[in-house]
Amino acid sequence: MTLRWLLTGRVQGVGFRPFVYRLAREHGIHGWVRNRSGQVEILGQGRTDRLDRFERALTDAAPPTAAPHIAEREVLAWQQLEDFRIETSQAGDRPWIQVPPDHFACPDCLAEVRDPTDRRYRYPFNNCTQCGPRYTLIRALPYDRPNTTLSGFVMCPACATEYRDPGDRRFHAEPIACPDCGPWLSYRPDTAPAPAAEGEAAVEAAAAALRAGEILAVKGIGGYHLMCAADNTDAIERLRARKPRPHKPLAVLFPDEVSLLRREVNCSEAELACLRSAQRPILLLPRTPAPSLPESLAPGLGELGVMLPCSPLHALLLQAAGGPLVATSGNLSGEPVLTDNAEADARLSDVVDGFLHHNRPIQRPADDSVLRPIAGAVRPLRLGRGSAPLELELETGVPEPLLAVGAHMKNTLALAWDRRLIVSPHIGDMGSRRSLEVFRQLVEDFQALHGVRATRLLCDAHPDYTTHRWARESGLPVTPVFHHHAHASALCGEHGIDEPCLIFTWDGTGYGADGGLWGGEALYGRPGHWRHLARLRPFRLPGGDRAGREPWRAAAALCWENGLDYTPPVTEPSLLRAAWQRGLNSPATSAAGRLFDAAASLIGLLQTASYEGQGPMLLEQAAAGCAGEALVLPLLTEAPPWQLDWTPLLAHLRDGRLPVAQRAADFHASLAGAIRDTARRTAADHAFTRVGLTGGVFQNRLLTELAQSRLQAAGFEVLLCRQLPCNDAGISAGQVYEHLGGQRGED
Amino acid sequence: MNDDTYISLAHGNGGRFMRELIESVFQRHLGNPALDVQADAVRLQLGDAHCLFTTDGFTVQPLEFPGGDIGSLAVHGTTNDLAVAGAEPKYLSLNAFIEEGLELALLDRLIASLAAAARDIGVQVVAGDTKVLRRGEGGGLYLATTGIGLALPGPVLGLDRIRPGDAVLVSGPVGDHGIAVMLAREQFGLRGDLRSDAASVLPLTRAARDLDGLRFMRDPTRGGLASVCHEISRATGLGVRLREAALPVRDPVRSVCEMLGYDPLYLACEGRVVAVVAPAQAEALLARWQALPEGSEACLIGTLEAGADRVLLETGIGGERLLEELEDDPLPRIC
Ligand SMILES: [Fe+3]
Ligand SMILES: [Mg+2]
Ligand SMILES: [Zn+2]
Ligand SMILES: [Zn+2]
User: In angstroms, what separates the C-alpha of A731 from chain B's closest C-alpha?
Assistant: First the structure.
């Protein structure tokens, strides 16, 4: 019998054709396999039982990074075939349509790195068709070595033989490398003009520096890390002072052998499997009662960001350093991680004592992915190396190719065409030159790599967002999307839900459909058709944007709105108060994020923040272990949208007789209860059973879990983000879902 | 919310809305070879003489503020536009729109101030007109002045002269006028340490005028220093790179800005000059300015760069912040 299959899904750049080749040989199948427009086409001829087993194995035994799906299967007329071949791609095809993320070394490659007799023993850049970097080294189409950042490395005869052998697991492994022909490491102390050590000696020199308490810039897969010994309080303090990053939590890199990790954080088997997956993300896990690493890694917080090595280089460095290492992004706050050797030399010189460079260029940055266990699942806070580009399948086709340029903070972009939606890794906060450059590069790369040109741009409606202006200046048709509509649609979109539901979109601020600053909204409807049913009672923020870094401003706003005394910590409190009264740079907002800031400030946890989200994070931590009691927050229903009044919280938060933990816990419990009450009240007038929670505020585990259980107890089904971050990293995808929903029209 | 059906206050703030309004209405209807909507003053050939010609309206509130008033401002604003275009101002016309109910003694004070300012810099008011508006239809007093001056010898100035690598200088601290007027308008009480910088920039432009390598001068009024940089970047296609550490901002201005959440780079000045000069002559211009009382706090603040079309602020810790074009009052962008 002769069969023809067409396979879709992630089947290119993951060693799928060599896998099919070996499988066919194993099962005695004749025929061929070839790439076709991003899909894989297979012709197989053989006995029916063999073809059956072969077909099952195509999906069941596929390489771990592949995700094949049989889209077509047909029986063909008999033709004489002699053997099984890998045919070259059809001319005119778009052979590289899926861009896989960067993955950790596979078990076979790791075994080689650990085998003293292997020619790739201790080689930090080992990879094969089924593992290693992809996204960060592909320059252009088609995916061939000359179009990767390995183009400057000429394969040695041994590598070339493997590369050409269809039976070898490195057949057409484009980044194939070995110590004879591939990239290498160099170590340069910051004070030295030239490298002091190369290759293996560079790892030893870097490890010695780390052991001596120095701070290093280490080039990895998607960019530089700043590293120091995680048990060295002094080094951590110096790193914090130099970056400067006084309080923001630092991630820690642990060896694969996880006994050290288990001493520091509580980790379930599922979480461990996530850490060990080929994505190798940072996971935020609760610290153990008596950890041995210093508190200063994450001051005031009960969790630590941990990860395992994401490449053989990191494994070798950890081993040589002899203990866990701090590994934080080598960038300036909010900017994309640095990728270029010379730029790292120039811009990190004041921060580090030495550089562990390598000479494999990084085509585009991919910062570490960050996940947090919330409400029974590990949920993404940042899409990055290993997890992005993230592909989502759309329920319906896209009428024209769309490029969604996202929001402003923690930005990503998304490209949609056919039934495909692809979300970029984390870019950064858009107010910097480097973010804008990376953004522009990704706009070009995403379209070029996938062979599509967007004919319409989707942007946030906020007129001052850099991405909004960029879209307006592009010359393409632009559809602005309201920020919270995008948040709500992202959540519905990734769950494939198009029936009416109630979505709480709680975040910092975003440009609302009424031209005001939203941030604590309840939207009813479905993508493209949202009604603004309820919101937090608005308050005017003295100093506008500055309130994001100065939680006391939100505290002042709440107090002043309610006619309570509040003396702001500035040189002329009366001047600020007068400016607020006259509405000078004091925009009204319903921002839930600022409400958390105000609570953190009123309780006395902090008055100014040194990183985004510090107030809410400290507030969540302050409530740890304390059972909160909910205060009832009135829902003012005179006019739509209804207003959820936070007033009862004020006196409670300011009551110095109550323990801090109690006040923090009661605050969370009150808001969770208010969410449930609002859902109940709106359910009286609208038919829905699903309630969604999204927006950056729901990165708060305590609030999310409390609200979820209250809602479930009230009979609602709760939607939480799974693949897309609930923060603004999800906005770009949400813009696509919102636009498509709007095009489907009113029912 | 801004839509394009009606004029909003944002159409007058010196930012993008105003630029687009001028392009879409005034330039569209009035376009002619001599009209240059980007220039402070236009160069006209009248017989043998090269003249520069400009006009300006004044609506400042309050009419009197620490460091100046609408009268002196009506002279300085227009003559400063001539001065930065490389001219020696000669004559002014004056239109006064007076609101019913304005106290005569105040009007007298304001016009006396105007006369004194004109006398000080050697210009004469040679034509005028007076209108009285009904109560409620004007802010007490609006003034409009038109000025004409003679081009001084020296290199031809213009945005088209600017080259990559050129240096950007500012003649003194920025933001004083914007903050002083705002505090006075909102009646926050007089503060001895905050005064408008309103003054004539003629001593500064005269000192710079004959310097070889001088490319362009402008007074950063509405929209402040950042808006001048945007204008330069937009017209030249070059990037403007400013160094935050080099920007002169007085402590009291900085502290009020920090408290109220304003950025001094977007606040108006009325007595400062921004100059673009060839890199080799940057130090010379700095020295000439610093030798004058008006320019004692002049600073070299940035450079023009090829391969970028943005206004960037190098921050203290090695960051490079994008300075966006002013829109409306800034809305928070923190999510
Ligand atoms: Fe948001
Ligand atoms: Mg003018
Ligand atoms: Zn491998
Ligand atoms: Zn080799």
Answer: 11
A2-86 CATH: 3.30.70.100
Contact B186 A511 (CB under 8 A): no
At residue A98, the pLDDT reads 77
Domain B38-151: CATH superfamily is: PurM-like, N-terminal domain (3.30.1330.10)
CA of B117 to the centre of ligand 2 (A): 17
Distance CA A618, CA A600 (A): 7
Q: Look at the domain A389-479 and name its fold.
A: Nucleotidyltransferase; domain 5 (3.30.420)
CA of A21 to the centre of ligand 3 (A): 17
The confidence score (pLDDT) of residue A64 equals: 77
For the domain made up of A489-741, give the CATH fold. Answer: Nucleotidyltransferase; domain 5 (3.30.420)
Cα A70 versus chain centre, distance: 29
Residue B329: list chain A partners with CB under 8 A. Answer: 585
Beta bridge partners of A252: A306, A326
pLDDT in tens, A551-582: 999 999 999 999 999 999 998 899 999 999 99
User: A99-182 belongs to which CATH class?
Assistant: alpha beta
> Which residues have C-beta within 8 Å of that of residue A552, sequence separation ≥ 6?
A568, A569, A601, A607, A608
* CATH number of this structure's domain B159-322, picked from the four choices 3.30.70.790, 3.40.50.300, 3.90.650.10, 3.60.20.40: 3.90.650.10
Q: What is the pLDDT of residue B12?
A: 78
In contact, A646 and A689? CB cutoff 8 Å: no
- The catalytically annotated residue of A10, A34, A35, A287 is A35
Which tokens is A160 given? 């070339």
Local confidence band at A79 (pLDDT 50, 70, 90 cut-offs): confident
CA–CA distances in Å: residue B230 to residues A679, B220, B304:
48, 11, 12
Distance from CA of B329 to the nearest CA of A (A): 7
Q: Which ligand is nearest to the CA of A694?
A: 1
pTM for the model stands at 0.92
What pLDDT digit, counting tens, does each position of A177-233 carry?
999 999 999 999 999 999 999 999 999 999 999 999 999 999 999 999 999 999 999
Overall average pLDDT of the A631-657 stretch: 96
